[in-house]
Every structure is written in structure tokens, then in C-alpha cells.
Amino acid sequence: MKKLLLLVTLALVFPNAAAAKELQSISICGASGCTALSHDQSDPFIALFERMDSSTATKAVLGAVPVGPYYKLGFKIRGDRTHSFTFSMWFVRPNLIRQQGEPDTFPEPFLRVADSFARELDGVARRIEPYGAPRVMGATVNGKRVADAAQYIGLFGAAPSVEADANDTAAGAWVNISLVPDRANPWFKRGAEFMYRTKSQALFVNEPLRIPDRLADRIAADAGLPVPARSSSFAGWGRSIGIGALVLCLFAAVFVVTKRRHGGPGSEAAR
């Protein structure tokens, strides 16, 4: 069989895969089990890999990818000799993959794959129940175990990107965050440390992400550091609006009661 041209993503993430002679099988696994695709099945998904070349478009996703259901991909490849080797990746529908990586390494960014590849992969994944969104079972902040670890899953929400410089001394203290997942997943793994700055509320991953205020306050408290000081202009404006609305409602209620007592339409005196 002619040399298999793998998806450029795989060649970049796994350089030794570029020299592979044959993709023997692909497995897609979820909570309900696995589906294996092989050349013997003449599955269009395998054929799609054979048509891939360096022109196939993939894009790194540097921003936040919120946690959700996911799958595990397994690839078995026959090398130049008689032996075979395997590697794994994660898949988040409809079109994101991520290298699983070694236990002591930080994961590569999510990659958005080409539409044709995503359609085939999504079509196969629909046959399988995915793994549920991961949970945080334990967390340490600056080496200290925290009491309420579950809320640290908020680190992987829809956080916006933020301009932050790791060398900015005004960005606050550094905090090291380590999490324990309930199972292996694409977002975080046991032993990997996340770097966080308190004042800028920036979590440094592939690009800095701004952590929500409530979780930022929790991280500061768990680290034994002051709660981040925030601009009071918006908060004060919001409080003024809230107080004004409350006063208006109370005034309206008093006006209605007074009108009814003094013979307004629908009052007791009018009747």
C-alpha cells in the first residue's frame, strides 16, 4: 500500500507518525464503549485519512474551550518495520481534537480540524455515548489542599481572553493551581500545574484568560492572599441603579395604597 498521508495535525503533534506506512485502525471510545474502524471495513473515515495532505487546514484554538462531553481517539499505525505503534487524542464534537500527551507534560492547544474530517469523525461519534464533562475531585493552591475543590471547574468555562504580561509585577502574586480530575479528559490532568496571577485574574494557558470574579476571590482566599481590588465605577453604578429601582418601586406602591384610601378609582370610598 502506498505511503499513508496523515492529517497535518498528526504529523505536527506526532512527528514519527509522518513516516508511517499504513494506518491500520482508528478507535473512537466513549462512555458506552468503543467503535473500531479498519481498512477491512473500507470505512470512508479511513479513506479520508489517506487523502489528507499538507494542504489540509487545521487551526489552533488558543482561547477558552468550555468543558463538555468528549471522546477518546486511538490510532494504530504500522511502521516501516514489522512493529506497530499507537497513540491517542481527544475529540470534542463537532470539530476539536487535542493531543493526550504524557503525564508530566502540559497539553498542546486544542486544534480545529478541517470540515471534511470533522464531519466523518462526528458521524462515527454519534453512534457512541460520550464521556460526561469532567469534574474536579481535588485541588491544591500553592501546595495547600483546598476544602471545596469542585468549583475549580470554573477555570475551564467560557472565560474571555485578556491582555496580560507574565512579567508584569503589577499583575499580582503568582498562584500555582493543581487539580485532580475524576477521569482522564482533554482539559486538565493530575500533576499539571496552572499558573495564575491574582490582580489581573489571568490564568496562563495557551493565552491568558480572565477568570470570573467569584472564582478569583475563591482562589485568593485559598492562597491566603488579599481579594483582588476591582474598579468601583461599574460596581457603584450598578448599585445606584439597583437602589434607584427599589426606591421607585416603593414609591409606586405607597402611591397606589394612598390613592385607594382617599377615594381613587377602585378604592373603598369610591365604592
How would you portray this structure in words?
There is one protein chain. Strand 5 (84-92) and strand 6 form a beta hairpin. The protein has 271 residues and is of the alpha+beta class. The strands form two sheets. Strands 2-1-4-5-6-7-3 form a seven-stranded antiparallel beta sheet, with helices on one face. It folds into three domains: 8-125; 136-223, no CATH class; 239-271. It is elongated, with a radius of gyration of 27 Å. Mean pLDDT is 75; it is low at 1-9, 11-20, 233-247 and 266-271. It has helices spanning 8-13, 44-51, 115-125, 213-223, 232-261, and strands at 22-30, 33-38, 59-61, 71-78, 84-92, 96-99, 110-112, 136-141, 144-145, 174-181, 193-197, 202-204, 208-210.
Short description:
The protein has 271 residues and is of the alpha+beta class. The chain has 3 domains: 118 residues; 88 residues, no CATH class; 33 residues.
> How much helix is in the residues?
10-25%
Q: Radius of gyration from the CA trace?
A: 27 Å
Beginning-to-end CA distance, first to last residue: 97 Å
* Strand order in the largest sheet: 2-1-4-5-6-7-3
Strand content: 25-35%
- The counted number of beta strands is 13
H/E series:
HEEHEEEEEHEEEEEEHH
> Major sheet: size, sense and barrel closure?
7 strands, antiparallel
Unreliable segments (pLDDT under 50, ≥5 consecutive)? 1-9, 11-20, 233-247, 266-271
Total tally of structural domains: 3
Average residue-wise pLDDT: 75
What is the SS-derived class? alpha+beta
What is the global morphology?
A: elongated
- Tally of alpha and pi helices: 5
